[in-house]
Each structure stands twice: as structure tokens, then as C-alpha cells.
Specification:
By secondary structure, this protein is α+β, with helices and mostly antiparallel strands. The protein has two domains: about 45 residues, SH3 type barrels (Roll); about 80 residues, Arc Repressor Mutant, subunit A. Helix content is about 35%, strand content about 25%. It has four helices and seven strands, in the order βββββββαααα. A hairpin with a 2-residue loop joins β2 and β3.
């Protein structure tokens, strides 16, 4: 499985695995509760493969950031996304020292860490390696 099959849906918690395309949307499985549901075609869906984080020089794909976190944590879980904003920011600086602090908000860092922990918990971090 690759990150192109893992989705984030605006307004819904967690991540989803794309199971198939339906006539009126997508059939997905939640990584939080393993329930299958249909996401309507009119909902805002982001594919993790297409997400990048701004640095001062360029944009870094999310899979590269997940790999940096995995290396830092020896493939274990990262800090909780519920930690204080200053703690999240300093942690993210260790992972990606040149991230653009004006364009990458605390909410973005929270999402990245929450997504990383969800993927790690569901043993899907190897999805980032398979794309190489």
C-alpha cells in the first residue's frame, strides 16, 4: 500500500484507506475504528501523497517527513499531537530544521504528528518506503 491510497477528509477525524471508487464517491475504511463508509464526491478529500510541507527553500513531501520522524523515533511513535504548541514546534524543528515557520502552522504540525502516529499504530509506515 502507498500513501496514494491513504486519505484525509476535511471535517472527519483520522485517516482513511481508499477501498474502491463508488458511483457517488469513495468507499473508505477508517484507521481509527476500522469501519467502512462512503465519502461523498462533494466532500473535500486530500491524498497524503500530494501533501507537502513548506521549507524556506522548497516543499518537502509528507512521506519524507514521515521517514525523518521514523528515523528519529526508531520507527516508534512520535510525541502526541495534543502536546503544547511550543513543544510541538521544537520537536518539528528537530525533524525538519528549515521548515517555514510563517507558513506552517501549529495545526499543520499537529496533523502531521497525528497522521504519523496513526500510520505507525496501524503498521502502515512502510507505505512510504514502497513508493521509492
Amino acid at each position: 500500500m502507498s500513501l496514494e491510497n491513504i486519505l484525509s477528509v476535511t471535517g472527519k477525524p483520522g485517516l482513511y484507506i481508499l477501498k474502491s471508487k463508488a458511483r457517488n464517491g469513495f468507499v473508505v475504511e477508517s484507521l481509527l475504528d476500522k469501519k467502512t463508509s462512503i465519502i461523498g464526491i462533494n466532500q473535500n478529500v486530500s491524498v497524503l501523497k500530494d501533501i507537502s510541507i513548506y521549507t524556506y527553500a522548497t516543499e518537502v513531501p509528507l512521506k519524507d517527513i514521515f521517514q525523518k520522524i521514523a528515523t528519529k523515533e526508531s520507527n516508534g511513535p512520535a510525541i502526541s499531537h495534543k502536546a503544547a504548541a511550543t513543544e510541538l514546534s521544537s520537536y518539528f524543528t528537530e525533524v525538519l530544521p528549515d521548515y517555514d515557520q510563517e507558513r506552517v502552522y501549529a495545526s499543520d504540525i499537529k496533523k502531521v504528528l497525528q497522521w504519523y502516529n496513526l500510520l505507525q499504530e496501524n503498521e502502515l509506515l512502510n507505505a512510504t518506503d514502497e513508493e521509492e
